[in-house]
Design goal:
With about 270 residues, chain A is of the alpha/beta class. Chain A contains 13 helices and seven strands. Chain A is globular and about 50 Å long. With about 475 residues, chain B is α/β, with parallel strands linked by helices. Chain B has eleven helices and 22 strands. The longest helix of chain B is centred in the last third of the chain and has 20 residues. Classes of the chains: A alpha/beta (about 270), B alpha/beta (about 475). Chains A and B meet through helix 1 and helix 4 of A and helix 3, helix 4, helix 6, helix 9 and helix 11 of B.
């Protein structure tokens, strides 16, 4: 199926603009134009800070202009009533289009779904989906199993609370994990939670951007079967990091996934040379 | 990573296409390699999206631009740019922007022309388009190469400011994106030669200071004419605004939102034309009112039958009495102008906002299938019906923003060229069933026949046809 040219919603009901938090780490040396800028998109309840903690600086150290944004209602970004997944994808495309060059979009959790949707709007160099949450019964079942107390109120419009054990692997010291879990915010987006009850299989990326799916078989938010399924949707196999939790960028062995992603970007011919 | 012609100072006219010796290693390209490339003429809004979408589909592209910067008509530094200080978009952002590169949320609904230029420059930088553009280089001739000689196109280029000898380069395909708002259309009036006042075309109007303290007659009620009349209402000592017929003046905002967004709320449902016209006419009479009270003639046509005029301020200044509406000009005298209703005005300055004509001097008329009046008749307003590797991007008068439509035109061109390479049999089939459809119109309304309205389209009817073409051009999975 070719790209759809009719964008009635964009035309007649544009997304309400908000201010957006964007953090950045820049390479110390002269910018290498062969390396595309990276845009990291955190997921539900996560702000730009989760990437600023470790990954931004690490990517900049490897010569990439690295940016992390907060979706609306998260971090220091503004919020708007009636926030939907569409508004998240809109935020991603808005930030991507302001970057100096064609960017790689790297989304985590619900942020990965926003990135997947943004990829069908904006011709990125490449897309990386980290532990993508695409919604549906499997996501709900996993959330209810591992965190019933935090999840059930979310289904009735109250804030969805993410737990420490849900987000992090066993190797991360408990004190550290608790500190991170305390920093998770309340995005006040009940419509997003409702939307996630349904499974969202994104449209194919515009401009043929290659897609990498990264996750952990021990992730308590995204079951392995979901990872395989979304990867198959893009015709690839997921890259797995056993023993890690959902928040790959904060977990004890945070360096392994980011290095694997950057290695993939350097090898992937369609991503690096277009 | 393509860094082959990053050095913009190097002009392609340094090459000799007929030279069989390999080119210097630093350029990384040979003349034979270029014969697989696509040539894009012009680096304005249409040319930029053509480069971007052709590159995205995997084509090598050389773009020739006579000016020294991107942006075409929207670059006020260019001597052919029609923009004036008060130019703003008349279609709101969602309709205007390229669909895959949105304008910033922080910009207003109808950005200023300087923002539009900044947008186009960002687009060029973001997608690395400048490295494919040869600036200061003008295309003087485009000639098809007969298939027995290898096919393709011989494109002759020369330095735009008269520098450098002509060179000819061979290309697989040519995309014409030279714009249609740079060659002024000048009407003839009885006695105009004897008129002692100043007469300029709107293309020479740059700044409201040109009007200050003068008695100004603005001719033409297109969007430009109305803008200049509004400027004159604020700056000039007196302003007459001459229009041939009554028009519908759409406001920029209705119900607190950009009016085009409100319009498409209705337009998305496939209502019959008469119902849509009635609904819109009703909305306009409610929001704007009956303009005969302000001295304007009643529109002699239904809504949607002429290019829409979007101007909220003209009516306001008519109501202040700072613009005097007058009908068509009958004749000029040495000091005065007489209108068809017998009224007389004595302007110091006459601004002819009478529009522009498309021009394709570098192409023989039959290549674009031109009719006796020199209007290209193209399939989907894009494809030459006689030459499958010749296309035009941007030759539209839409009832909506144009950049998004140009984007889809460019995507169509890229898909078409790719299908020709990947699946010649299917391309041939597409060609045979569609190439003769060049008389198709893309608006249901009976559009007034004039030099402006022959390529008038409704964005919805046009995009329906584009979607169908894209589906057909999609390579089999």
């Amino acid at each position: 199926m070719s790209e759809q040219v009719f964008r009635w919603k964009e035309w007649t009901r544009p997304v309400t603009p908000v201010s957006r938090e964007v953090l950045t780490s820049q390479p110390a040396d002269e910018i290498d134009l062969t390396r595309p800028p990276l845009l990291f998109v955190p997921g539900y309840a996560h702000g730009a800070w989760v990437f600023a903690e470790k990954w931004l600086e690490h990517a900049a150290g490897r010569g990439y202009q690295a940016y992390a944004m907060s979706l609306r209602g998260h971090g220091d970004s503004g919020s708007a009533p009636g926030t939907t997944l569409r508004a998240y994808a809109h935020d991603v495309v808005q930030v991507a289009a302001r970057l100096p060059r064609q960017a790689v979009l790297i989304g985590h959790g619900v942020g990965a779904l926003a990135v997947a949707q943004a990829l069908s709007r904006y011709p990125a160099r490449a897309g990386v989906l980290l532990a993508p949450v695409i919604g549906g019964p499997r996501t709900l079942a996993a959330a209810l199993r591992h965190n019933p107390i935090g999840t059930v109120p979310g289904l009735f419009g109250a804030p969805l609370r993410l737990g420490r054990r849900q987000l992090f692997g066993k190797e991360l010291p408990v004190g550290q994990a608790r500190q991170y879990a305390d920093r998770m915010g309340d995005p006040d987006a009940p419509r997003v939670v409702y939307q996630l009850a349904r499974r969202h299989l994104p449209q194919r990326p515009v401009g043929g951007a290659p897609v990498l799916v990264v996750g952990s078989p021990d992730d308590r938010v995204v079951p392995r079967a979901s990872l395989v399924r979304i990867a198959r949707h893009y015709g690839v196999a997921p890259l797995l990091f056993p023993g890690m939790g959902h928040d790959l960028m904060l977990d004890a062995r945070w360096q392994e996934p980011i290095d694997a992603i950057l290695d993939w970007l350097e090898k992937e011919p369609a991503a690096a040379d277009r | 990573m393509r860094r082959d012609n990053w050095d913009l100072g190097r002009s392609p006219v340094d090459f000799d296409a007929t030279n069989s010796a390999p080119p210097p290693a630093t350029t990384g390209r040979s003349a034979t390699e270029r014969s697989e490339h696509v040539c894009v003429i012009g680096a304005g809004a249409a040319g930029l999206t053509a480069i971007k979408n052709l590159r995205q589909a995997g084509f090598g592209v050389d773009c020739y631009e006579r000016e020294t910067g991107v942006g075409g008509a929207w670059n006020w530094r260019h001597d052919r740019s029609p923009v004036y200080a008060t130019t703003h978009l008349i279609s709101s952002k969602p309709f205007t922007q390229y669909p895959d590169f949105p304008m910033p949320d922080s910009w207003p609904d109808y950005p200023h022309h300087s923002q539009v230029l900044a947008y186009l420059e960002r687009y060029a930088d973001h997608f690395g388009l400048r490295e494919h553009v040869w600036f200061g280089t003008e295309v003087t001739r485009v000639v098809p190469v007969p298939p027995e000689a290898g096919g393709g196109w011989d494109v002759t280029i020369s330095g735009a400011r008269g520098g450098g000898a002509d060179r000819t380069q061979r290309y697989a395909a040519v995309v014409v994106a030279n714009g249609h708002n740079w060659s002024p259309k000048l009407p003839e009036y009885e006695g105009l030669d004897n008129f002692r006042g100043e007469v300029i075309h709107a293309s020479q109007y740059k700044d409201p200071a040109q009007l200050r303290g003068k008695k100004v007659l603005v001719v033409g009620a297109g969007n430009t004419g109305c803008d200049i009349a509004v400027d004159a209402a604020q700056q000039a000592a007196r302003c007459w605004h001459s229009s041939r017929r009554g028009y519908w003046y759409a406001p920029k905002f209705a119900y607190g939102r950009p009016a085009d967004q409100v319009n498409d709320l209705v337009a998305r449902y496939r209502l019959p034309l008469w119902l849509r016209q009635r609904l819109l006419q009703r909305t306009l009479t409610r929001v704007v009112g009956d303009l005969r009270r302000f001295g304007l003639p009643k529109p002699d046509h239904k809504l949607l039958e002429t290019h829409p005029i979007t101007n909220s301020q003209l009516v306001y200044y008519l109501g202040h009495g700072s613009v005097t509406p007058v009908p068509d000009i009958a004749r000029f005298d040495t000091r005065s102008v007489e209108f068809v209703d017998g009224r007389v005005a004595e302007p110091d300055l006459v601004v002819l906002a009478t529009g522009y004509l498309p021009r394709f001097e570098f192409l023989a008329p039959e290549l674009l299938n031109m009719d006796a009046e020199g209007r290209p008749r193209l399939n989907l307003h894009v494809f030459s019906p006689n030459f499958p590797t010749l296309a035009v991007v941007g030759l539209l008068q839409p009832d909506s923003g144009i950049f998004s439509l140009m984007h889809w035109q460019a995507v169509m061109v890229a898909s078409w060229l790719r299908l020709r390479e990947q699946s010649p049999a299917r391309a041939d089939q597409y060609w045979r069933s569609h190439h003769h459809e060049f008389n198709r119109r893309f608006t249901k309304a009976k559009v007034k026949d004039s030099t402006r309205h022959w390529f008038e389209i409704s964005h919805i009817d046009y995009l329906r046809a584009v979607q169908k073409a894209l589906d057909e051009l999609e390579p089999a999975a």
